[in-house]
Fold Regulator of chromosome condensation (RCC1) repeat-containing protein.
Amino acid sequence: MKFTQISAGLSFSLALGADGNTYAWGYSPDGQVGNGTNADSLLPVVVSSEGVEFTQVSAGATAALALDSDGNAYAWGKNDAGQLGDGTTTDRFTPVRVNTGGVTFTQINSAASISLGLTSEGNIYAWGKSSTGIPTDSPSRSKQMSSMKRSVRLAVVQRSVRAASFMIGGITPRERRGRLLSPV
């Protein structure tokens, strides 16, 4: 088996196979392996993507993100903070499409209870729970930005989607504690 991309999470790993399949292995109590079960796997198993071919994968602490060739994001695994972006906090054992309201991404990244997507325009969308404690269950915007449609503007501290620290532009620390609104 040849792999074209790999990503290591906290206790599971993902890989894109040269055969077009996505593979996962490791600890899977919340469906991180993505094959429809919560069974751990010592060897790579095919992620149940139902005909969707992924072009990028990102393994986070307890959830996985993937991107298809059209820029649609998919997620699976633990969803206690809404990091799967499907509008729920239900764990998913197979990939579900992230509810983006039509926004597509060129890059995705999964971290500890937060997921990020980068658009071709350079905008970063976030969902889940960030290090500042902002919960949301789909790619969202803040209450302060309610006049903007389907937009989260984040200022990236280290000019990288892979940066661990993000600051919400124009929002005070007190407002950061509030719940974000759904984009749709």
Observations:
- The CA atoms of residues 2 and 42 lie 17 Å apart.
